[in-house]
Amino acid sequence: MRMISTNLATDTWFRFLVKQTFHTSHKEMWVGNGKDYEWVKLNVFTRWNASTKGTIVIVFDASPTMKADLTTLFAGAVDSISLGDPYFSHVLLAGEVLRLQNDAVWNIRNLVRSIEHD
Fold first, then answer.
1. Stretches in the chain below the pLDDT threshold 50
2. Among 26, 22, 37, which residue's Cα sits nearest to residue 115?
3. Residue 52: which residues within 8 A CB-CB, separation 6 or more?
4. How many CB atoms lie within 10 A of CB 90?
5. What's the pTM?
6. Do 42 and 12 contact (CB within 8 A), yes or no?
């Protein structure tokens, strides 16, 4: 993560990649791209303005599912207290990365487990 901060604004940008596997057995490969996995990307730029206490969050190259998840996440979490914190959006985004990583670990576990049973 990179951060630039002044008395007027705080800008950050970061990128997370999470590898998700999508088959239930090592014999089944059914992802649309012909692979049994995909990289989930979270490319984010944020700007918090000190004078307005407003935050701009721009997410680049998000999948439709990621867009919907983040829209729901931010819509349910914004209140007047959180808007005064330049890093409140980071907490929400870190939670989303945590969820993605958790899913990735369990997907790999399920894949290994299916191989062990075959």
1. 26-27, 29-31
2. 26
3. none
4. 19
5. 0.75
6. no
